[in-house]
Design goal:
Metallo-beta-lactamase, Chain A; alpha/beta; binds nickel (II) ion; 7-stranded mixed β-sheet; globular; single chain; binds manganese (II) ion
Length: 206
């Protein structure tokens, strides 16, 4: 499984794209036209997460996956969708996709993405105790926000790693703008698990 960081909360994991905030993302090094994917998961409908998902879905004839209220609009413009809600699971290609809670405004969620390995994308969230239950999925890699202000900061993300008992963590949702400035090296130093810091455009084989 290859995890490519596209900046902010956007990742391309093999043929699955999450929260593709590309065009208006000042730290994203790739162009919309160059992204190839079959599945697009959206954690919530804030602009820095739903991003360019409609355009990329159309370019790739990809299926958009997320909370019903979020993907409904995509369906109305002819995009293939899989409606879900918290606790639900869909199988798509080689993937098992499970929607889990997040603590945030709007209709927030996180994803458990299972194939040969299990990845947890936390979406935008504060720290919450149910991360302990999410840890029951036996997480190989957790993608966690560390930028603070709108999500967890470094200290909280460190606590999240303890609750999740994840083997590895990759920080996200930081340094996109000045207001969510954070030093990932500090997270790496404090976290109880291995931390992989990816620069936008870099990938990691898990
Ligand atoms: Ni948000
Ligand atoms: Mn956000």
């Amino acid at each position: 499984m290859k995890i490519k960081f596209l900046g902010h909360s956007a990742f391309l994991i093999d043929d699955l794209l999450i929260d593709p905030f590309i065009k208006d993302n000042p730290i994203c090094p790739v162009k919309i036209e160059d992204i190839k994917c079959k599945i697009i998961c959206i954690t919530h409908d804030h602009w820095d997460h739903i991003g360019d998902s409609f355009e990329i879905a159309k370019n790739n004839d990809a299926t958009l996956v997320g909370v019903s209220d979020t993907v409904k609009k995509a369906e109305e413009v002819g995009i293939k969708t899989e409606h879900m809600n918290i606790g639900g699971m869909v199988k798509l290609g080689d993937w098992e996709i499970i929607l889990v809670p997040a603590t945030h405004s709007g209709n927030p969620s996180g994803f458990i993405l299972k194939k040969d390995k299990t990845v947890y994308h936390a979406g935008d969230t504060g720290l919450f105790m149910d991360m302990m239950l999410i840890g029951g999925y036996n997480i190989d890699v957790a993608l966690l926000p560390i930028g603070g202000r709108y999500t967890m900061d470094i200290e909280q993300a460190v606590e999240a790693c303890k609750l999740l008992k994840c083997k590895k963590a990759i920080p996200m949702h930081y340094n996109t703008w000045e207001v969510i400035k954070a030093n990932p090296e500090e997270f790496k130093k404090k976290a109880p698990c291995e931390v992989i810091i990816l620069k936008p455009g870099e990938e990691f084989e898990v």
